[in-house]
Design goal:
By secondary structure, the chain is α/β, with parallel strands linked by helices. 27% of the residues lie in helices and 36% in strands.
């Protein structure tokens, strides 16, 4: 996880241009409003696409990520949006350090999947960092998606000044998918090539519920992402909401 999103950071926003971040932010905003949240930490915030949007909605945001390269892009994005005092910190989401507890913690876009050795350390750290009654919101790519859709498949995409090839190998015994991302970014008259290796764990809903409850969380709710409906067997993304008891 330490090496992920280093070379990729320079082209991340260009390659993820089809993600509907406005709608994603509104979806999270709905849960935060229900929880009465004001102060929010976003873990694995990447280049700050959701952090900035939620800050503009009025939340007192802090963004954190393990990749300093991604955070550099996030800080610039915040400045461009007129958010001069939006803090971004480089830290491991399994060892959260804050000046004071927050009302809510958000982790979007597969941050928990990257915890291939288990999510309990993150859940324990989040529990400690939340105020009593605070809310943890996170999503995961489902076990169905990783084991069936990504399983030993290769994807490719191109843009005006970028291209990537994304190769996947799923390991049923480990419940993990290993990814090789080869990217090309235009530099001057040519292209710079980079490679990154990523791994994600295929968590089941039952596994994550059990881990959350063992760390002290209650009132655990799970939806098919971007809906308020119970997930189907073929849901590709699951949204979790849990409350600190």
């Amino acid at each position: 996880m330490n090496e992920a999103y280093s070379a990729f950071a320079a082209g991340y926003d260009r390659m993820m241009g089809d993600v509907e971040y406005d709608g994603w932010a509104r979806y999270i905003d709905g849960f935060l409003k229900e929880a009465g949240a004001r102060s929010v930490l976003e873990c694995a915030c990447g280049t700050g696409n959701l952090t900035v949007r939620l800050a503009k909605m009025g939340y007192a945001m802090t963004g954190s990520d393990l990749s300093e390269d991604m955070l550099m892009a996030a800080r610039q994005k915040a400045l461009n949006a007129g958010l001069r005092f939006l803090p971004f910190v480089c830290q491991d989401m399994r060892r959260i350090v804050l000046h004071k507890p927050v009302d809510a913690i958000v982790c979007a876009c597969d941050g928990v999947n990257y915890l291939v050795d288990g999510a309990e350390d993150f859940f324990r750290a989040a529990y400690t960092a939340l105020k009593p009654g605070g809310t943890l919101l996170f999503d995961v790519s489902s076990a169905y998606k990783l084991s069936t859709i990504l399983n030993n498949n290769t994807f490719a995409a191109t843009g005006e000044d970028w291209a990537y090839i994304w190769e996947n190998q799923y390991h049923p015994r480990l419940g993990r998918v290993d990814m090789l991302l080869t990217g090309f970014l235009r530099q001057g008259k040519g292209y710079a090539r980079f490679e990154e290796h990523h791994s994600q764990r295929a968590y089941t809903e039952a596994e994550l519920r059990s881990s959350l409850e063992s760390c002290g969380f209650g009132d655990v709710r799970v939806f098919e992402a971007f809906t308020r409906s119970a997930p189907t067997d073929t849901a590709e993304r699951l949204q979790f909401i849990a409350r600190k008891e």
